[in-house]
């Protein structure tokens, strides 16, 4: 930041979150899987929803799933396209205008 100080305001990072059985997530995504947000390092048969990928390329993630015999079983999404209401103090209106979330469900054939 300016004058060697860290910027207080920064943009949120988009991430591809991964959930499922730990051993299967590791098998599919290999070294592209980031496990740093999953504090429970129990056995590989447990389930987690705290992994994310080290890249943000959804096509690459889909290809990795397809190569392992998975197909998309469903998807859903939510988002905002702006609001006419007056924003609360301190809220970044530009950031809120483009908030969205997409979920894709894959099953092995």
TrEMBL record:
Pfam families: H1_KCTD8_12_16 (PF23110)
Transmembrane segments: none
UniProt keyword list: Cell membrane, Cell projection, Membrane, Phosphoprotein
Source organism, top-level taxon: Eukaryota
InterPro entries (alphabetical): H1_KCTD8_12_16
GO CC annotations on file: neuron projection; plasma membrane
Domain KCTD8/12/16 H1: 1-108
Subcellular location field: Cell membrane; Cell projection, Neuron projection
Entry protein name: BTB/POZ domain-containing protein KCTD8
Species for this entry: Bactrocera dorsalis (Oriental fruit fly)
Gene: KCTD8
